[in-house]
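// run 5 | inverse folding | seed 20
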């Protein structure tokens, strides 16, 4: 996968940020999944330092969650005017109940909509990665596992396995999981089984962690994990990293922050460097800015 090398001007001692932003239409694409109680516009604003670098190698596409909800308490002060606020999955009892099949279909429809809209906007690069924050990271990891489940079953049976209700046949190469927490949602019950997964229509916080993670539910696709050391949910982020991801395909970036996306250049550049490494390992060429 070839990426044109843009002209650049050195803007600091540690970065090689180009002077111009390239035409993103031919670049490999990353689907970006916001957290719960926010929306795509807020995620884009929160991730501005990552975008500053990644936009020279990838076309970033921002999807909107299918379900409306109240704003997350952490964003009200700064982003209170950014309504409507959305979610992908339930995490509170007051969120409207829905059966798992309907939730999976709605998630699939929302993702398809974002991807098709980007096609119409001129995007033509391969879909290569998923980047999610918080609940979006949980969803990104669950999508990687759904794909892996179909690949495993196809290998075992020698037959093509349908995508199921999620309806997304993309061959994701890697995931960027920003403050992503365990457990993972089962997005294809016809293919995935085991006590380590919870029903997509349920509340993930009610999942009991006493059981181990079955081998078939361990993600083998490359993943970058970003953990804030002051995040109240850190123990759940570590469980996603430790229990659900294969040791030789996972990369961990830690920073001294709370439940948010790195907002200082030094921390953001560590994340970007890890993304470049993982992308190249999966055969995606990048223009390194750090």
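// decoded
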């Amino acid at each position: 996968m070839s990426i044109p090398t843009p002209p650049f001007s050195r803007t600091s001692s540690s970065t090689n940020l180009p002077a111009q932003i390239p035409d993103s239409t031919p670049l490999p694409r990353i689907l970006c999944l916001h957290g719960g109680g926010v929306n795509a516009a807020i995620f884009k604003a929160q991730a501005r330092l990552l975008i500053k670098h990644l936009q020279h190698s990838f076309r970033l596409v921002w999807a909107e969650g299918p379900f409306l909800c109240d704003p997350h308490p952490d964003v009200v002060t700064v982003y209170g005017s950014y309504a409507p606020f959305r979610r992908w999955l339930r995490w509170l009892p007051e969120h409207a109940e829905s059966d798992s099949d309907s939730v999976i279909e709605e998630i699939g429809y929302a993702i398809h909509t974002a991807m098709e809209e980007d096609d119409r906007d001129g995007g033509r690069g391969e879909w290569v990665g998923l980047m999610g924050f918080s609940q979006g990271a949980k969803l990104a990891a669950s999508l990687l596992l759904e794909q892996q489940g179909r690949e495993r079953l196809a290998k075992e049976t020698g037959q093509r396995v349908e995508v199921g209700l999620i309806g997304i046949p993309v061959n994701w190469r890697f995931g960027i999981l920003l403050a992503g927490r365990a457990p993972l949602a089962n997005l294809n019950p016809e293919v995935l089984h085991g006590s380590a997964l919870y029903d997509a229509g349920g509340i993930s916080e009610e999942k009991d962690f006493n059981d181990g993670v079955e081998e078939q539910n361990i993600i083998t696709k490359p993943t970058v994990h970003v953990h804030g050391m002051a995040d109240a949910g850190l123990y759940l982020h570590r469980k996603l990293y430790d229990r659900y991801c294969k040791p030789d395909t996972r990369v961990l970036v830690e920073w001294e922050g709370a439940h948010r996306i790195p907002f200082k250049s030094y921390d953001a550049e560590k994340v970007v460097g890890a993304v470049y490494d993982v992308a190249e390992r999966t055969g995606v060429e990048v223009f390194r800015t750090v």
